[in-house]
Specification:
Elements (H helix, E strand, L loop, with lengths): L4 E2 H11 L4 E4 L6 H8 L5 E4 L3 H15 L3 E5 L3 H15 L4 E7 L15 H5 L5 E4 L6 H13 L5 E7 H5 L1 E2 L16 H13 L3 E5 L6 H14 L3 E3 L14 E4 L6 H9 L2 E5 L22 E6 L13 E4 L2 H8 L9 H12 L11 H11 L5 E4 L5 H7 L8 E2 L9 H11 L5 E6 H7 L3 H6 L4 E7 L4 H10 L14 H8 L2 E5 L5 H9 L4 E7 L11 H5 L2
Parallel strand pairs: 2-3, 2-4, 4-5, 5-7, 6-7, 9-10, 9-12, 10-11, 12-13, 13-14, 15-16, 15-17, 17-18, 18-20, 19-20
Antiparallel strand pairs: 1-8
Helix pairs in contact: 1-2, 1-6, 3-4, 3-15, 9-11, 13-20
Length: 547
């Protein structure tokens, strides 16, 4: 009996074998054989999106939630270039993802055929692995390897190009079983050295979040921090690494951190960095923690050996996955510290909104959300100053409650919220977007409505590219160019997509609008109009200009 299958059928069978439940796509003629196979595969939910950037962002967010690769399919040329933003985010955010690209026929390669690109060359700098599958019989091998690469060590994206004619070939292929990421354990000698360093440290500070963090690691680390009293800071946009009500949680690093937390990090004699790469945002341009960090000892724990020692002089490098390290850490006690409770009290004060003399004050709006929304709400945002209010004032309940690109990509919030709503229909999902951020992927409201997502979108509208305006006013006061926006009526636009929507222009109008939104099913949008003068949660344009 023959086992002849098309390449498209073989590919879908491998995705099933690896546990794929959902695919995000904008369809293309270059992978019709895959779409045909999906027609007979009800076990895989096919989410049809409106632009390939939205596709890739959804796949990236899905991978962040499941710790298995989010799966995206796009067509060649424009489809692939549109999707590249999501690959870059998945790489910088250390999230597992596989992007499949329908490619030109094998017989027309290297002629600059219609929409032809050398995808291996294009994606090599921003992916863990990028290649082309030329033999349909080897699809199981490539897909199994793609899953292993995407989830192994430091998670990240893989890109596989699929020649159109290869997907139509009928061949016999041997299916591969589902693979599991290899666990990287801790060696006993390293943990003994860590115990010695902790025993002699007077002002230790931990910085957590990043590659491989999940619920088990979070619980173990938070429990250890509570017992030892060592302050725990979250890396940039990794605020859900441990529950923020942990008695030793000290707040987040990145843009606009608590000055008291910054001082603690500067004054620390031992830094225990578990998961983060210590990138530019977390370290304030490599100045908060310098590559040589004189006067400080650095313990760096990361699942990728290539990351350890790459930028920072490291006193103790531990290559381990987060679960194994956090479990081993629970056996180390060390002397108790009072600094954790002090740092947590400082964070509580810093994260409590104080009213400002503004018609629309976002701080009290976040306080209202804290009062009305469940603790396990998933907060999704792209890039922009608007996100700073939630970074400062929203308490994250633990892993899986924050989807925010450390790569600083605009347009991420709405697609991420779509993915989160489909993955967790039982939970509250909120997409945050500035006016500039929203219009980069606002078309995915159509995807949300089509696939019956349940989510709340909050568009913060100050008629400006706010982050750039802030830098502009600081560097070139009152010389405004290129940062002013003329916006549509976002509430009317949302209604056109089939969403419930309302416009809010005063702080006291936010709570009744939010209550009405929460009582309404489906996709809801609040168009919140703010004054650009209130440029961030910490300052105003007048202060930046020195007025």
């Amino acid at each position: 009996m023959t086992n002849l299958r098309t390449g498209g059928r073989i590919l879908v069978d491998q995705l099933l074998a690896q546990g794929c439940e959902r695919i995000f796509t904008v369809p293309g003629e270059s992978f019709l054989a895959v779409l045909d196979a999906l027609h007979d595969t009800p076990a895989i939910d096919l989410v049809v999106c409106r632009q390939e950037g939205g596709v890739a962002f959804m796949a990236c967010a899905d991978g962040a939630m499941t710790h298995r690769p989010g799966i995206a399919f796009v067509t060649r040329g424009p489809g692939a270039t549109n999707a590249s933003i999501g690959v870059h985010v998945a790489m910088q955010d250390s999230q597992p993802m596989i992007l499949f690209i329908g490619d030109v026929d094998r017989g027309t390669r290297d002629r600059e055929a219609f929409q032809e690109i050398d995808f291996a060359a294009m994606f090599a700098p921003i992916a863990k692995w990028a290649t082309r599958i030329d033999d349909a019989a080897r699809i199981p091998e490539y897909v199994a390897r793609a899953y292993a690469v995407a989830t192994g060590g430091r998670p990240g994206p893989v890109v596989l190009a699929l020649p159109e004619d290869m997907l139509l070939d009928q061949v016999e292929a041997i299916d591969r079983p589902r693979g599991q990421p290899l666990a990287q354990g801790c060696d006993a000698e390293s943990m003994e050295q860590l115990a010695d360093l902790l025993a002699t440290a007077e002002r230790p500070v931990a910085i957590v979040g990043g590659a491989g963090w999940g619920l088990v690691a979070s619980q173990d680390f938070a429990s250890w921090a509570d017992r030892t009293g060592i302050p725990v800071a979250a890396a940039f946009r990794r605020q859900d690494a441990i529950p923020n009500d942990c008695p030793a949680y000290a707040g987040n690093l990145g843009y606009g951190p608590n000055p008291k937390l910054v001082a603690r990090v500067r004054e620390a004699d031992l830094l225990l960095v578990v998961g983060p790469r210590l990138g530019e945002a977390t370290t304030d341009g490599y100045t908060l923690i310098t590559p040589d960090h004189p006067g400080q000892r650095l313990v760096h724990v990361h699942p990728d050996p290539a990351e350890l020692g790459m930028t920072y002089r490291t006193d103790l490098a531990i290559c381990a996955d987060m679960i194994a390290f956090a479990e081993a850490l629970t056996t180390i006690e060390g002397p108790p510290h009072a600094a954790g409770a002090e740092a947590h009290a400082e964070w509580v004060e810093w994260s409590t909104p104080q009213p400002r003399d503004l018609a629309m004050d976002l701080g009290p709006c976040v306080a209202t959300m804290r009062k009305l929304l469940p603790a396990d709400t998933i907060i999704c945002n792209g890039a922009g100053n608007y996100s700073g209010w939630w970074h400062r004032y929203w308490p994250y309940a633990g892993p899986g409650t924050q989807l925010a690109p450390t790569a600083g990509a605009m347009g991420y919030g709405v697609p991420a919220a779509v993915a989160a709503s489909l993955r967790h229909p039982e939970r509250m999902v909120v997409a945050l977007a500035g006016d500039g951020c929203f219009l980069m992927n606002g078309q995915e409201l159509a995807t949300a409505v089509q696939h019956r997502a349940s989510m709340l979108v909050i568009v913060v509208d100050n008629s400006a590219y706010g982050t750039i305006r802030m830098h502009q006013e600081r560097e070139f006061p009152r010389r405004i160019a290129g940062t002013t926006l003329a916006n549509p009526d976002f509430a009317a636009l949302a209604r056109a997509y089939g969403c419930w929507a309302a416009t809010v222009e005063r702080t006291d109008a936010f709570e009744p609008a939010l209550r009405e939104a929460l009582a309404t099913p489906g996709v809801r949008l609040l168009h919140v109009k703010t004054d650009v003068e209130a440029i961030s949660a910490a300052t105003t344009l007048a202060k930046l200009r020195g007025d």
